[in-house]
Fold:
Amino acid sequence: MAIEKNTVVSLSYKMYDEKNNLIDQTVDEPMVYLHGGYDGIFPVVEEALHGKNIGDTVDMHLSVEDAFGEIDADLIRVEDIKNLPETPKVGLIFEGEDETGEIGLYRVTEIADGKAVLDGNHPFAGMKIRFVAEVVAVRPATNEELAHGHAHSHGHHH
Ligand SMILES: [Zn+2]
Structure:
C-alpha cells in the first residue's frame, strides 16, 4: 500500500552531515512513525514520503530549520562539577531542568577548572542534514495508535 494519512511507515535511513560524513543510521530495527502530521518525523521528509510505496527511496538535503533546528544558546549552561549528581565526563548525558522547570537531556561537552559545560541542544542542532531513506513497510495504523498519535512498535514504551 502507498503511504497516506494514518498509515504506519517503517524506514531504514542514513543521515549525513554537510561534508557527507555518516552521522546516524538505522541498524537492526527500522524507524517507525505514524504518517499524517503527527510530528513523527521531519515535516519536509513526511511530505516527500507521501504517496510512496515499499522500496521507494528519498534523498533529501534539509536546512537547519527543517532538521534539528538552530543551536539555542539558552540551552547551554556552565555548572560547578560539585553540583552535579556524578563525576562528569565529556559525552555523558544528564537529566536537567531548564528555567521553566522543563526536564531535558544535557550533554557534557567540556570540562575545565572544576566546571562542566552542559548542552541541552540536540547533538545535530545547527547542522544541515542529508537524509536518505528507503520505505521498508507500510500498514494501516491501529485505532490505539491513532488515539495516541504515534506508532507502536518494538521499543515503544508507555
Ligand atoms: Zn502509545
Summary: The first strand starts at residue 7 and ends at 16.
